Amino acid sequence: MEFVVNNILVLTQALWALNGGTHIKQFQLPRPKPVPQNNNSSIISASDMGISDEEWDRLQKAMDWPIPDQITNLNQSTSPVHSSFSIVGLKESYKVGEKISVTITARDHNKNQKRYGGDFFKAKLFNSKLKASVYGEVVDHRNGTYSVAFLLLWEGQAQVFVRLEHSSEVVQIIKKYRDSSFPRSHYIGYFEGLGPNKTRIYEVMECNLKWGPDGSWKKGNCCCEYKDIKTGTMWQCERPKTLSCDKLVHHSLGHLENPLNMFEQQLFSK
User: Fold this and answer.
1) Residue 221: CB partners within 8 Å, gap ≥ 6?
2) pLDDT of residue 85
3) Cα–Cα distances in Å, from 236 out to 17, 158, 201, 229, 244?
4) What does the pLDDT average to over 149-163?
5) Name one Pfam family in it (predicted).
6) CATH numbers and ranges of domains, the chain
7) Is the pLDDT of residue 38 over 50?
8) Nearest alpha carbon to residue 103 among 153, 144, 54
Protein backbone atom coordinates (compact mmCIF):
# COMPACT_ATOMS: atom_id res chain seq x y z
CA MET A 1 0.00 0.00 0.00
CA GLU A 2 2.55 2.55 -1.12
CA PHE A 3 2.55 5.60 -3.34
CA VAL A 4 5.03 6.78 -5.95
CA VAL A 5 8.05 8.56 -4.51
CA ASN A 6 8.97 12.15 -5.42
CA ASN A 7 12.50 13.57 -5.30
CA ILE A 8 13.37 16.91 -3.73
CA LEU A 9 16.74 18.66 -3.80
CA VAL A 10 17.68 20.35 -0.54
CA LEU A 11 20.41 23.00 -0.41
CA THR A 12 22.41 23.85 2.68
CA GLN A 13 21.90 26.96 4.80
CA ALA A 14 22.71 27.80 8.41
CA LEU A 15 19.43 27.95 10.28
CA TRP A 16 20.06 27.87 14.00
CA ALA A 17 22.43 30.07 16.03
CA LEU A 18 23.68 29.50 19.56
CA ASN A 19 22.18 31.58 22.33
CA GLY A 20 25.53 32.95 23.43
CA GLY A 21 25.29 34.35 26.94
CA THR A 22 21.51 34.55 26.86
CA HIS A 23 19.84 33.55 30.12
CA ILE A 24 16.93 31.20 29.54
CA LYS A 25 14.50 30.83 32.45
CA GLN A 26 13.43 27.28 33.15
CA PHE A 27 9.83 26.66 32.14
CA GLN A 28 7.54 25.69 35.00
CA LEU A 29 4.54 23.55 34.14
CA PRO A 30 1.26 25.01 35.40
CA ARG A 31 -0.80 22.79 37.65
CA PRO A 32 -3.50 21.31 35.39
CA LYS A 33 -7.12 21.03 36.39
CA PRO A 34 -8.52 17.52 36.95
CA VAL A 35 -10.12 15.98 33.87
CA PRO A 36 -13.00 13.56 34.55
CA GLN A 37 -13.08 10.24 32.73
CA ASN A 38 -16.10 9.22 30.68
CA ASN A 39 -17.40 6.80 33.31
CA ASN A 40 -17.10 9.42 36.08
CA SER A 41 -15.93 6.67 38.41
CA SER A 42 -12.55 8.26 38.95
CA ILE A 43 -10.72 11.45 38.07
CA ILE A 44 -7.45 11.70 36.22
CA SER A 45 -5.54 14.92 35.69
CA ALA A 46 -2.83 15.99 33.32
CA SER A 47 -0.52 16.34 36.33
CA ASP A 48 -0.94 12.62 37.00
CA MET A 49 0.68 12.06 33.62
CA GLY A 50 3.32 14.78 34.13
CA ILE A 51 2.09 17.00 31.29
CA SER A 52 0.55 20.46 30.94
CA ASP A 53 -3.06 21.35 30.17
CA GLU A 54 -2.06 22.30 26.63
CA GLU A 55 -0.37 18.96 26.02
CA TRP A 56 -3.35 17.13 27.49
CA ASP A 57 -5.71 18.95 25.11
CA ARG A 58 -3.42 18.18 22.17
CA LEU A 59 -3.39 14.49 23.03
CA GLN A 60 -7.17 14.40 23.38
CA LYS A 61 -7.58 15.98 19.96
CA ALA A 62 -5.04 13.56 18.45
CA MET A 63 -7.02 10.61 19.85
CA ASP A 64 -10.31 11.92 18.46
CA TRP A 65 -10.61 9.80 15.35
CA PRO A 66 -13.31 10.65 12.76
CA ILE A 67 -16.09 8.12 12.31
CA PRO A 68 -16.59 7.18 8.64
CA ASP A 69 -19.85 6.49 6.86
CA GLN A 70 -21.19 2.96 6.93
CA ILE A 71 -20.39 1.18 3.68
CA THR A 72 -22.07 -1.82 2.12
CA ASN A 73 -19.63 -2.49 -0.71
CA LEU A 74 -15.93 -3.29 -0.47
CA ASN A 75 -15.13 -0.92 -3.33
CA GLN A 76 -16.33 2.00 -1.21
CA SER A 77 -13.35 1.57 1.13
CA THR A 78 -10.16 3.60 0.69
CA SER A 79 -7.91 2.35 -2.08
CA PRO A 80 -4.10 2.61 -1.73
CA VAL A 81 -3.82 2.30 -5.50
CA HIS A 82 -6.12 5.16 -6.46
CA SER A 83 -5.28 7.47 -3.56
CA SER A 84 -2.51 9.96 -4.31
CA PHE A 85 -0.39 12.74 -2.90
CA SER A 86 1.19 15.89 -4.30
CA ILE A 87 3.77 18.39 -3.08
CA VAL A 88 2.29 21.87 -2.77
CA GLY A 89 4.23 24.47 -4.77
CA LEU A 90 6.97 22.04 -5.78
CA LYS A 91 10.28 23.79 -6.53
CA GLU A 92 13.50 22.60 -8.13
CA SER A 93 15.48 23.17 -4.94
CA TYR A 94 15.00 23.99 -1.28
CA LYS A 95 17.15 25.18 1.60
CA VAL A 96 17.81 23.33 4.82
CA GLY A 97 15.29 24.50 7.38
CA GLU A 98 12.50 25.09 4.89
CA LYS A 99 9.23 23.26 5.14
CA ILE A 100 7.43 21.47 2.37
CA SER A 101 3.72 20.76 2.37
CA VAL A 102 2.14 17.61 1.00
CA THR A 103 -1.54 17.05 0.24
CA ILE A 104 -2.98 13.53 0.31
CA THR A 105 -6.23 12.74 -1.49
CA ALA A 106 -8.01 9.53 -0.50
CA ARG A 107 -10.08 7.72 -3.11
CA ASP A 108 -12.06 4.51 -3.05
CA HIS A 109 -11.64 1.54 -5.38
CA ASN A 110 -14.03 3.15 -7.85
CA LYS A 111 -11.65 6.15 -8.07
CA ASN A 112 -14.15 8.39 -6.29
CA GLN A 113 -12.74 10.86 -3.78
CA LYS A 114 -13.66 9.99 -0.21
CA ARG A 115 -15.97 12.51 1.47
CA TYR A 116 -14.97 11.73 5.05
CA GLY A 117 -11.73 11.20 6.96
CA GLY A 118 -10.40 8.62 9.37
CA ASP A 119 -7.79 6.93 7.17
CA PHE A 120 -4.51 6.02 8.84
CA PHE A 121 -1.73 7.43 6.65
CA LYS A 122 1.98 7.55 7.44
CA ALA A 123 4.24 10.02 5.65
CA LYS A 124 7.99 10.51 5.84
CA LEU A 125 10.81 12.38 4.16
CA PHE A 126 13.99 10.33 3.74
CA ASN A 127 17.37 9.85 2.10
CA SER A 128 18.47 6.21 1.96
CA LYS A 129 22.16 6.93 1.30
CA LEU A 130 22.44 9.31 4.24
CA LYS A 131 20.19 7.09 6.37
CA ALA A 132 18.27 10.23 7.26
CA SER A 133 14.52 10.48 7.68
CA VAL A 134 11.82 12.46 9.40
CA TYR A 135 8.12 11.72 9.78
CA GLY A 136 5.48 14.36 9.18
CA GLU A 137 2.33 14.87 11.19
CA VAL A 138 -0.70 13.97 9.09
CA VAL A 139 -3.62 16.37 9.58
CA ASP A 140 -7.04 14.94 8.76
CA HIS A 141 -9.40 17.50 7.21
CA ARG A 142 -12.28 15.01 7.48
CA ASN A 143 -13.29 15.47 3.85
CA GLY A 144 -11.06 12.88 2.17
CA THR A 145 -7.98 15.12 2.10
CA TYR A 146 -4.99 15.20 4.43
CA SER A 147 -2.03 17.55 4.75
CA VAL A 148 1.50 16.88 5.93
CA ALA A 149 4.33 19.33 6.72
CA PHE A 150 7.98 18.23 6.61
CA LEU A 151 11.00 20.12 7.91
CA LEU A 152 14.04 19.72 5.62
CA LEU A 153 16.97 18.82 7.87
CA TRP A 154 19.82 17.74 5.59
CA GLU A 155 21.63 18.69 2.39
CA GLY A 156 21.14 16.55 -0.70
CA GLN A 157 18.30 14.55 -2.17
CA ALA A 158 15.10 13.83 -0.27
CA GLN A 159 12.15 11.63 -1.11
CA VAL A 160 8.56 11.75 0.08
CA PHE A 161 6.99 8.44 1.03
CA VAL A 162 3.30 8.00 1.89
CA ARG A 163 1.74 4.75 3.05
CA LEU A 164 -1.87 3.84 3.77
CA GLU A 165 -1.64 1.71 6.90
CA HIS A 166 -5.39 1.19 7.33
CA SER A 167 -8.46 2.53 5.59
CA SER A 168 -10.93 4.50 7.70
CA GLU A 169 -13.28 1.53 7.55
CA VAL A 170 -10.66 -0.84 8.95
CA VAL A 171 -9.70 1.68 11.65
CA GLN A 172 -13.27 1.59 12.95
CA ILE A 173 -13.23 -2.21 13.02
CA ILE A 174 -10.03 -2.16 15.07
CA LYS A 175 -11.51 0.45 17.42
CA LYS A 176 -14.70 -1.56 17.87
CA TYR A 177 -12.92 -4.70 18.98
CA ARG A 178 -10.33 -2.80 21.01
CA ASP A 179 -13.12 -1.29 23.10
CA SER A 180 -15.06 -4.54 23.43
CA SER A 181 -14.67 -7.39 25.90
CA PHE A 182 -14.49 -9.96 23.13
CA PRO A 183 -12.46 -12.99 24.35
CA ARG A 184 -9.78 -12.94 21.66
CA SER A 185 -7.57 -15.53 23.36
CA HIS A 186 -8.72 -18.69 25.09
CA TYR A 187 -6.74 -20.58 27.70
CA ILE A 188 -6.73 -24.01 29.28
CA GLY A 189 -6.55 -24.50 33.05
CA TYR A 190 -5.10 -27.68 34.56
CA PHE A 191 -6.45 -28.82 37.93
CA GLU A 192 -4.86 -31.59 39.94
CA GLY A 193 -5.73 -33.06 43.33
CA LEU A 194 -6.93 -36.05 45.34
CA GLY A 195 -10.43 -37.43 44.93
CA PRO A 196 -12.72 -38.98 47.56
CA ASN A 197 -10.88 -42.31 47.39
CA LYS A 198 -7.46 -40.67 47.61
CA THR A 199 -6.99 -41.24 43.91
CA ARG A 200 -5.29 -38.49 41.93
CA ILE A 201 -7.66 -36.61 39.68
CA TYR A 202 -6.77 -34.43 36.69
CA GLU A 203 -9.30 -32.01 35.23
CA VAL A 204 -8.83 -29.70 32.26
CA MET A 205 -11.13 -26.67 32.07
CA GLU A 206 -11.45 -23.63 29.80
CA CYS A 207 -10.17 -20.30 31.18
CA ASN A 208 -10.05 -16.67 30.14
CA LEU A 209 -9.31 -13.16 31.32
CA LYS A 210 -11.95 -11.13 33.12
CA TRP A 211 -12.38 -7.78 31.39
CA GLY A 212 -13.36 -5.32 34.11
CA PRO A 213 -15.88 -5.74 36.95
CA ASP A 214 -18.72 -6.59 34.55
CA GLY A 215 -16.59 -8.26 31.90
CA SER A 216 -17.18 -11.81 32.99
CA TRP A 217 -16.18 -14.26 30.35
CA LYS A 218 -19.13 -16.45 31.35
CA LYS A 219 -22.10 -15.32 33.41
CA GLY A 220 -23.43 -16.79 36.61
CA ASN A 221 -21.68 -18.82 39.29
CA CYS A 222 -19.83 -20.81 36.67
CA CYS A 223 -16.24 -20.07 37.37
CA CYS A 224 -13.33 -19.88 39.73
CA GLU A 225 -11.66 -16.49 39.91
CA TYR A 226 -7.95 -15.78 40.32
CA LYS A 227 -5.88 -12.63 40.58
CA ASP A 228 -2.33 -12.19 39.32
CA ILE A 229 -0.48 -10.63 42.26
CA LYS A 230 2.06 -8.83 40.07
CA THR A 231 -0.27 -7.32 37.47
CA GLY A 232 -3.64 -7.38 39.21
CA THR A 233 -5.15 -9.21 36.22
CA MET A 234 -8.31 -11.17 37.00
CA TRP A 235 -8.68 -14.70 35.65
CA GLN A 236 -11.64 -17.03 35.34
CA CYS A 237 -11.68 -20.77 34.85
CA GLU A 238 -14.73 -22.97 34.51
CA ARG A 239 -15.39 -24.63 37.83
CA PRO A 240 -14.05 -28.23 37.86
CA LYS A 241 -16.63 -30.98 38.26
CA THR A 242 -14.83 -32.67 41.15
CA LEU A 243 -11.89 -30.60 42.37
CA SER A 244 -12.04 -27.25 44.16
CA CYS A 245 -10.89 -23.94 42.70
CA ASP A 246 -7.62 -23.93 44.68
CA LYS A 247 -6.42 -27.02 42.83
CA LEU A 248 -5.42 -25.04 39.71
CA VAL A 249 -1.82 -26.03 38.90
CA HIS A 250 -1.06 -24.02 35.77
CA HIS A 251 -2.62 -22.82 32.53
CA SER A 252 -1.62 -22.64 28.87
CA LEU A 253 -2.79 -20.94 25.69
CA GLY A 254 -5.64 -22.82 24.06
CA HIS A 255 -6.59 -21.07 20.83
CA LEU A 256 -7.02 -17.65 19.28
CA GLU A 257 -10.44 -16.54 18.11
CA ASN A 258 -10.94 -14.32 15.08
CA PRO A 259 -13.65 -11.77 15.94
CA LEU A 260 -14.04 -10.51 12.35
CA ASN A 261 -17.05 -11.40 10.28
CA MET A 262 -16.64 -12.20 6.59
CA PHE A 263 -17.20 -8.63 5.39
CA GLU A 264 -14.68 -7.27 7.91
CA GLN A 265 -12.11 -9.87 6.88
CA GLN A 266 -12.52 -8.83 3.27
CA LEU A 267 -12.00 -5.17 4.21
CA PHE A 268 -8.68 -6.05 5.84
CA SER A 269 -7.51 -7.98 2.78
CA LYS A 270 -8.83 -5.29 0.40
Assistant:
1) 239
2) 96
3) 61, 54, 20, 15, 14
4) 94
5) Neurexophilin
6) 6-24+78-176 (2.60.40.10), 185-256 (no CATH)
7) no
8) 144
